[in-house]
Amino acid sequence: MTEYFLIIISVVFVNNIVLTKILGLCPFMGVSKKLDTSVSMSAATAFVLTIGSITSWLINYFLLVPYNLEYLRTISFIVVIAAVVQFTEMVMEKNYPYLYRVLGIFLPLITTNCAVLGIPLLNAQLSHNLLEAAIFGLGGALGFSFVLILFASLREKFEGANTPQAMKGSAIAMLTAGLMSLSFMGFIGLDRL
Amino acid sequence: MIAAILIILSITAFIGLVLGYASIKLKTDGDPIIDRIDKILPQTQCGQCGYPGCKPYATAIANGEADINQCPPGGDDGVHKLADLLGVEYKPLNAEHGETKPKSIAIIDESTCIGCTLCIQACPVDAIIGAAKQMHTIVEKECTGCELCLPPCPVDCIEMVEIPETTDNWKWKYPIHPIKQQH
């Protein structure tokens, strides 16, 4: 039990996928202008990451490893995750219109962003078992949501703040992202109990 | 080598089959986003946006062909709602498409009307009744105030009348808070 808890703590704070691993920066900068879109984005990412890490673990364990085909990981993970997301999107549109309305456009957007591909690859690298892989995926999504929502709230504050002319818009956002990444360095060592 | 090709082929073939089957089986009719945009638009069918009506404009917005700030009857409020729905930045109304006017309806001066039926053909919502050489009149309940009947009238007998605020149509105003710092 402790090790699963440690996986979550480690992937949310210490090895945060955005701020430490520098993956998934496009949604981090792109969808963080408004708080409510960033919440939808986080939910969609959580969904895709968990599903993605489970399916790609299955592909890796049952198809690639037995035939020594680990070099096909990247391409097969991309294909499988994209297909699973596409399929769930169709099912959702048909059966759960409300959920589809909330996640809707964000699902295809993040089909294979670098975070979504990065987590399954890390899973394979760290040779996690199925449950660990699922928890790692969910934790990665939690970490992503955590920093995305923090960052979006900060950026909403900047809208009203008295920022110097040259720093307005993206410039101050980039600086803030850097400072956030710096402050997350402070969590190093938290996962070594 | 053979195993690699076979495995990739079988993965993609399986995925292709499943997705193909799903796209037939799970088909949904219509694009819900167009209907939701259409619901926000004021349904005046006035054509000020450059499209023949509200639904075509909604389709154009959904396809990314039109901007969200081309609907004067919808006003600032409408642009805000569209921006919220589509997750894009609010932008002020485009002045090229006209400006927001208070809600009004057309009234035909019945003694001047010559019964030419030109305004009946222009009305997008069939709110004008009348026949050739008979006096026309406007069904006030149906009129959207689009002003499309004004230009064709040869004797200028149609007039836009503002709807006064009465206890029947009054509603709470949305609270407005200035968020940006005032300089």
Give an overview in words:
Chain A has 193 residues and is an all-alpha fold. Chain A has a domain at 31-145. Chain A contains nine helices and no strands. Chain A has helices at residues 2-14, 25-30, 35-64, 73-95, 97-103, 106-109, 114-125, 130-160, 170-184. The longest helix of chain A is centred in the last third of the chain and has 31 residues, at 130-160. Chain A is globular, with a radius of gyration of 18 Å. The mean pLDDT of chain A is 86. Chain B is mainly alpha-helical and 183 residues long. Chain B folds into two domains: 32-97, 3-methyladenine DNA Glycosylase II, Chain A, domain 3 (Orthogonal Bundle); 101-163, Alpha-Beta Plaits. Chain B contains five helices and four strands, in the order ααααβαβββ. Chain B has helices at 2-25, 32-40, 54-62, 75-86, 118-122, and strands spanning 104-108, 128-129, 137-138, 158-162. In chain B, the strands form two sheets. In chain B, strands 1-4 form a two-stranded antiparallel sheet. In chain B, a hairpin with a 7-residue loop joins strand 2 and strand 3. The N and C termini of chain B lie far apart (69 Å). The mean pLDDT of chain B is 84. At the A-B interface, helix 3 and helix 4 of A face helix 1 of B.
